[in-house]
Amino acid sequence: MSHANSQTPDSRAFDHKPLPFYVGAIADTVVGVGLVSFAEAIAPMILPDHASILGIAVSSVLRFLGLFLLVFALDTVVVARSSGALGRFRSWIVAANWATVAAAVLVLGLWHGSLSLLGIAAVTAIALAVGVFASLQQRAI
């Protein structure tokens, strides 16, 4: 009996390729809920000397980012579960994650003086985590 024939139907049914996408979606959900729920408390800890960004309250910007992450997490799960034409958008999820890493580097490079030490650590941690997720997702495509 060959190795392919020795697999049970259940073991073949589980596709490991979407797993990095699901883990990324869980992380996006956790961060998104945190930003939406605690934006008022987080804002002064990250940008202590700034109440607004381009006239918009920092807490509102953080809340918007949290909502965006929740929508992105849902989109990631839908795309990861799809095998047809929609499944081809996995590369877009990866590209969006790499764009997030680039944006974090840009924020650190341009506005590190405005961020608190906690803000710098948070942006750095997010960039590193998203970079790991993007790398794992890219390998899974």
Description:
- The chain is an all-alpha fold.
- It has one domain (16-140).
- 76% of the residues lie in helices and 3% in strands.
- It has a two-stranded antiparallel ribbon with strand order 1-2.
- The longest helix is centred in the N-terminal third of the chain and has 28 residues, at 19-46.
- The chain starts with a helix and ends with a helix.
Please render the helix and strand layout as text.
Blueprint: H1 3-6, H2 9-13, H3 19-46, E1 52-53, E2 56-57, H4 58-81, H5 90-111, H6 117-140
Antiparallel strand pairs: 1-2
Helix pairs in contact: 3-4, 3-6, 5-6
Short description:
This protein is an all-alpha fold.
Key descriptive features of the protein:
single chain, 141 residues, mainly alpha, two-stranded antiparallel sheet, 3% strand
The overall pLDDT average reads 90
From the N-terminal CA to the C-terminal CA, the straight-line distance is: 30 Å
Largest sheet: 2 strands, antiparallel
Radius of gyration: 18 Å
SS summary, helix count? 6
Name the poorly predicted regions.
Answer: 1-14
Structural class: mainly alpha
Total domain count: 1
Please state how the strands of the largest beta sheet are arranged side by side.
1-2
